[in-house]
Amino acid sequence: MKIRALSAALFLTLPVAAAAQNNAVPATTTPEAKPAAATSIEAIEPQITGFFDSWMKNAHVPGLVYGVVKDGKLVLVRGLGVQDIASKKPVTADSRFRIASMSKAFTAMAILKLRDEERVSLDAPAERYVPELRNWRYPTADSRRTRVADLLHHTAGLVEDNPWGDRQQPLSEPAFTAMLKAGVPLAQAPGLRMEYSNLGYATLGRIVSNVSGQRYQDYIRSSIMTPLGMTSTGYDVLNGPQDLRALGYRWQDNAWVREPDMADGAFGAMGGVQTTANDYWRWVAFLLSAWPARDDPDKGPIKRATVREIVEGSNFVNTVERPGASGRPCRVASAYGMGWQVVNDCDVGRIVTHSGGYPGYGSIVMLLPDAGVGVFAFANRTYAGPGLPVSQTLYALRQAGLAEERTVPVSPDLARAYDIMRDVWRSGDPARAPLANNVVPDRDLNRRRKDIAELKKQVGACRTDAAIEPISAMEGTFTWACANGNVAGRVQRAPTPALSLQVLSFTAAK
Question: Which pLDDT score is estimated for 226?
Fold first, then answer.
């Protein structure tokens, strides 16, 4: 289930988008709409499909489905290859794939939902909700007890367990209880570093069961999946329409070998979800709809503010050199949030992602929450995570103008502050502004007047009608075109109820 770095076809665009609007998933809203992109998703579809087709051939993958979600709609979905090499039945948007560790996002969301209902505390020792953990022995006398938050962030001290964890999927609930009661060895004291643990997320699933009074799988289905219209998504892969399943294979001795199916069991919380592209996009759209923060009514099964918590990393930041979304070298910082990895990519900005690796399957999802865009892909070959074509797709969308980050709206007070900056420039007197009490001690008014006069003499007449570019509701920058160059400016409010300026800056710009 480890997070890994990055034929028949079904291509649906506008008809799918229209149908999507009738679903309960709220579309993402933007405070300021940008002009329509010149390039359409249809225009770059061949390029995107080429990414996946090339990757499939190189990775020896029998079948794959990918989807692109934008502004609350499934704008592109396509199946490639076959879901079963014997029957050669083509992959479609209704083919069912196991998504392995991408299941952890549902577990994390369930814990946060129970937290919102004041039934779980993230700061509480996990043994409060799973009594079997009271028998655990800790590596040092000063080790803290494992908290619920430690399990969410993979900081519980448990050893990285991908080779072992994948094969625990069918473990029975009584056997899992016995495992927990017997105690497990810890790799280090809780809270010291992030170490990926499938056992930790299986334990979170037990918390969900114990607190909710329902089987973990039933709680996830009734509280999250059903409200989102995910009617073809579940955990019991052996009890459903088998003709729709994408069967799992491994590549061995230059041939595909069928991987044995693992039944649903106690480790479902770490990797047991089976879903379709036509279902999974609804989950992606729901998550993306949490951005930006706004005043609209909350209509989802989980509050928007709660969904936005998934990007809050555990502060054990990892920095590595790897190719960025464009393929160019990129030094990437990443941290594990709550069921998600948060990555700062050099080419497309903040990516919220999780992959899934499992006997017979590989998958990945990447979200650009600040752009309202997500791309996901499922494959039916052991540990074949399609991170490369998904990254390439994000970059292609960004280059085509289809994944632009939303602009921050100009608040009324920022607009007023900008008008004040224009007046200060015209008059040459910063004393005309409502100044915060740091301004004069930082640089006295006479010096500031001289600075403005010298800059005006240098650049000549300026046009001051350029729009301000907000950084937040309280801060913005601007650039004015002048006769002999440009002026770059910055204005920032102080954190006081009455409008006052703590920064008012004019500098020559190249």
Answer: 98
